[in-house]
Amino acid sequence: MIGPSAERTPNQTSYRVTGQGSPVVLIHGVGLNKDMWGGQVVGLAPHFQVVTYDMLGHGESPRPSGDCGLEGYADQLVELLDHLGIEQAGVIGFSMGGLVARAFALRHPDRISSLVVLNSVFNRSPEQSAGVIARTAQAAEHGPDANAEAALKRWFSLEYQGANPAQVSAIRETLANNDHQGYLTTYSLFATQDMYGADELHRIAVPTLIATGELDPGSTPEMARGLAKRIPGAQAVVLEEQRHMMPVESPRLVNQLLLDFLLRADCLQDRAKGIVA
Fold it and tell me: Locate the AB hydrolase-1 domain: which residues (predicted)?
């Protein structure tokens, strides 16, 4: 499936829309862009209107301001939904995108119909925090490419790297070509905001799925379970033998998880509206 050409909102957010049905928005991770979701667009577009976009400081979207917090990234999504005339959407956030999705759910609860957080962070240990802060300092000094090789080793299995060198190389190039300031602003938030809204998460009142990979060293199963415990009724899923980039490395597996959840969430929403008996 070849997606449509990218378009832009009045505030210059770059986005694509594929498929028809209930809207689902996918938010990529730090250093990546909307193209990371190719496997999910193929899998979800037959059932949903799939919206992918470049978050602030990434791809073809504008830089965030230097003092931009997660609220600014959440408000970017609101502007996109307003531009598309979408009142409510399911929101899927990966890694840093999971933090944005959390902020969006708390800041704009009337605009979200379901929430999925994939391979994201919550309640890092002191050692984990020290490691990501050190990587932020390296990026500040040497640019987005500073941590690329180590990141790819954390993100992908050795087997996938060996079998798909061109795709891994393309992702490395994407990381290296990020705008320095946009990347640093975003990565700094990723490094420090793992507890964003922790005491308010009980207010999230939509169907919620928190998932990660068994072998994800930065977004661990413990983090996923801990985050899910804070959100009423949230489901926590750990996919066996998967690493950080499981949406890219294992799209069929991840798509089945997403479809099962999203179709069920859609049905619950229809019942709440009296559409389904």
Answer: 23-250
Residue 235 backbone phi and psi in degrees, to 5: -100, 130
CATH number where 229 lies: 3.40.50.1820
- Residue 64 per-residue DSSP state: P
Domain hosting residue 203, numbered range? 7-272
pTM: 0.95
- Number of CB atoms found within 10 A of residue 8's CB: 16
Number of domains in the chain: 1
Q: Where does residue 259 rank: exposed (0-12), middle (13-18), buried (19+ CB within 10 A)? A: middle
105-115: per-residue pLDDT in tens? Answer: 999 999 999 99
- At residue 88, the 3 state secondary structure works out as coil
Average the pLDDT over each of 22-26, 145-149, 184-188 and give the range with the smallest value. 145-149
Does a structural domain hold residue 277? no
CB 242 within 8 A of CB 249: yes
Q: Does 1 reside within a domain?
A: no
Q: Among candidates 234, 17, 30, which has minimal Cα distance to 119? A: 30
Nearest to 99 by CA among 205, 1, 187, 158: 187
Backbone angles phi, psi at 16, to 5 degrees: -135, 150
The DSSP letter of residue 13 is -
Asked whether 106 and 204 are in contact (CB, 8 A), the reply is: yes
Q: What span, in angstroms and rounded, lies between the C-alpha atoms of 56 and 74?
A: 10
Instruction: Answer whether residue 51 is part of any domain.
Output: yes
